[in-house]
Each structure stands twice: as structure tokens, then as C-alpha cells.
Design a protein that fits this description.
about 20% strand, 10-stranded mixed sheet, DNA polymerase, domain 1, about 30% helix, 2 domains, alpha/beta, two-stranded parallel sheet
């Protein structure tokens, strides 16, 4: 069975070519062809030796995930349901801004974290995605843009905020980031990639040594353990105080912040005392707070707060001099907003 070309880092590809007595410089040309120029087929490459091309065609598959369902929201958000080679399915979302896009990628089929506010959490964990399946979401979405919105195929930011806990699949997410940031390929800057975590400490322990420079976002959602236990059950195993200690140990670059995501749920964590405790918790940290009004999904017990309540919450946080923004909800009419992804 052929292996996916998109599973190999640049160094992996060079080594494989050398091991088969082929010119390692072809790695540069191949990465440029498939990642920088985003071509689909190698049959028109003219500057690589025929023997190397034969080897590439014999050994590698260049298949990408199949988009079995594509939904376009009124605000131009696009949600893809991708079918993988084993029949598993994941969702990815293109989020528009000024004729450019961010892409929200999934890292697992389902999720083991069981967060009560998240639609994905209702289905449990099926398996991890490989780096090639993560990369494939990006490339498939890019090709769709080229074919359907020509001139807009600019995906400038990557956020690992789709299905799954990225740090629960650390090795494959790390490899995908290495491929994304390779100067020979898509050349996406580390500062343009954000990985969100619910506070999975085994992954946070590896962060500073293995993926420095990539942006971190913590799903915080409450400064109080009792409420956070309800929303994020792994808080019982990895309590917030311990999570923050590990985050505080991650070196930040100049002008780099840790984003703390705070999902505001009506009558649960939207009180004045919640805002004041959150401000007190983060006031001495290099923090950016992202307030996210809850996005309802089928079967959820939670409700979205009104905008006035959200703005009051924001004003209280600003008294602590912490940069705070309210995330604009995009794609909720096709269940593409934060917390709404599922594989059905």
C-alpha cells in the first residue's frame, strides 16, 4: 500500500530519497510543487529526473480527503465534511475575513474530553488523525477555494480548534505544524498557527521544547473549579491551577500572548463575580481573552446569553487592563461555529 506524501516532513523526504540512491535535492522541488504551488499531480514536473519521478509515483499516494458535504453560510463561512480513507469523517471550517481565510482544522475523529458545551464531545473518541489527514484538510479546502472562489485562495491562519483535543494527538499535530511551517512548502509562520487545548497537561509538558513559537489557546470557560468541572471534565484530573503553572513556563516571543477562550453561557458563567474572578486570575499574565457567546447545538442544555450581558462582562474585564475581544459568531446557520462541529 502506498504511503501518503503528505505524511513526510522535508527531512523525512530527503532521507528517503537518499536511502534509495536518488538525488535529495528533489525534495525541495517536490515540496515546492505540492505545497507552495499546490499542484495536484506530478506528471507535468519537468525538472526532476525520470527515475525519481517513477519512484515517487510508485511509493507515494497524493490522495486528499474527499469532501462529501460542503455547506456555505450566509457570511461566506464554508464547512466541509471530509471522508477519510477508512470511511471516518471529520469537519473543517473556512472562516472569511477581507477576502482571506482562517481554517479551523480537526485533529481527531471525535474527542475523548467530553466537554459538555461541545457537540463533538457527545460522540466520544474514535481515533487520532495522521499528519497527512490534517494537512489534507488544509489542501482540500485550498483547492476548493481556487475552483469556487478564484482569487480568494489565501488561507493565512491555521487554528486547531476543530474536532478533537490537539494535545491528545501531540505527535501528529506537531508533525503537521512542522510541515506547515517548512520554508520549502507552505511557509506559514509559527505566529499564524494556534493550537487550542482544554488543558491536557501531558501535551503542555512537551510544548516549550517541541513546538515553541506556535500560539497557544486555553479553553478556560470558568475561573471556578466547580463550574469548570462541569464544562471540562478533565479539570478534575488536570486542575486549572496546575494547567496555568505549565502555561506560565512556556516562553513567549515578543508581542506574543496566550489566548484564554471564555465561552459565555447564560446563567452559568456570565455573572459579575465570574468576570471579576477571571480578571483577578489573568491580570498579571501575558493574556488575551477571547469571549465567545455560546453557540447552541441540537440537544444542548445551555443557552446563549444576550449581547448586553456579554458586553457588560467585557467591560468588567477591561478594568483589569487585559486585552479582551468578543468573537464574532460565524457559520452558526450551518453549525460551523465554535463548539458545533460533529461528524454526521
Amino acid at each position: 500500500m502506498k504511503q501518503s506524501f503528505f505524511q513526510l516532513t522535508f527531512n523525512d523526504l530527503q532521507q528517503l530519497l537518499e536511502q534509495n540512491s536518488l538525488n535529495a535535492s528533489a525534495a525541495n522541488l517536490l515540496y515546492n510543487w505540492y505545497y507552495k504551488r499546490k499542484n495536484k499531480y506530478s506528471n507535468s514536473i519537468t525538472d526532476i529526473a525520470k527515475g525519481t519521478l517513477s519512484f515517487i509515483d510508485e511509493v507515494f499516494s497524493f490522495d486528499l480527503p474527499e469532501a462529501v458535504k460542503i455547506q456555505q453560510a450566509e457570511d461566506k463561512t464554508v464547512k466541509f465534511l471530509f471522508k477519510l480513507s477508512d470511511g471516518s469523517k471529520v469537519e473543517s471550517v473556512l472562516i472569511p475575513f477581507n477576502k482571506k481565510y482562517s481554517i479551523c482544522l480537526s485533529s481527531q475523529v471525535g474527542c475523548a474530553m467530553k466537554c459538555s458545551f461541545c457537540f463533538t464531545g457527545t460522540q466520544g473518541l474514535k481515533r487520532n488523525l495522521s499528519a497527512s489527514e490534517i494537512i489534507g484538510q488544509f489542501l482540500s479546502a485550498w483547492h476548493w477555494l481556487r475552483e469556487n472562489r478564484p482569487g480568494e485562495e489565501r488561507i493565512l491562519n491555521i487554528v486547531f480548534m476543530g474536532q478533537g483535543e490537539p494535545l491528545h494527538n501531540f505527535d501528529e499535530v506537531k508533525k503537521a505544524c512542522e510541515i506547515f511551517t517548512s520554508q520549502y512548502g507552505t511557509s506559514i509562520g509559527h505566529q499564524k498557527i494556534t493550537i487550542s487545548t482544554s488543558g491536557y497537561i501531558p501535551g503542555l509538558k512537551r510544548w516549550k521544547d517541541e513546538i515553541p513559537g506556535v500560539n497557544l489557546a486555553l479553553s478556560l470557560h470558568s475561573p471556578f473549579d466547580e463550574t469548570r468541572n462541569e464544562l471540562i471534565p478533565i479539570n478534575r484530573k488536570y486542575p486549572l491551577e496546575e494547567v496555568l503553572d505549565y502555561i506560565d513556563g512556556i516562553p513567549l516571543r515578543n508581542k506574543q500572548f496566550v489566548t484564554y477562550e471564555y465561552l459565555i453561557i447564560k446563567d452559568l458563567n456570565d455573572r459579575q463575580e465570574d468576570a471579576l474572578a477571571l480578571g483577578q486570575l489573568l491580570k498579571d499574565r501575558r493574556a488575551l481573552i477571547n469571549l465567545i457567546p455560546f453557540n447552541e447545538f441540537p440537544g444542548t442544555q445551555y443557552k446563549r446569553p444576550d449581547l448586553e450581558r456579554v458586553n457588560q462582562f467585557k467591560l468588567l474585564l477591561e478594568e483589569y487592563k487585559i486585552p479582551t475581544m468578543v468573537r464574532t459568531t460565524k457559520g452558526d446557520d450551518v453549525l460551523a461555529a465554535c463548539g458545533q462541529l460533529n461528524t454526521k
